[in-house]
Amino acid sequence: MIRIRPAGAADGPAIARIRAETWQVAYAGVLPAQLLAEMTDPEAVEREGEWRRAHSMDGVLIAESAPDLVGFAAYGPERAEDDEPGQPGGDREDHGPAELYAIYVVPRQWSSGAGRALLDGVLALAAGDGYTDISLWVLEANTRARHFYEQAGFAPTGEAAVLARLDGVMQVRYRRVLG
Question: pTM for the whole thing?
Answer without folding.
Answer: 0.89
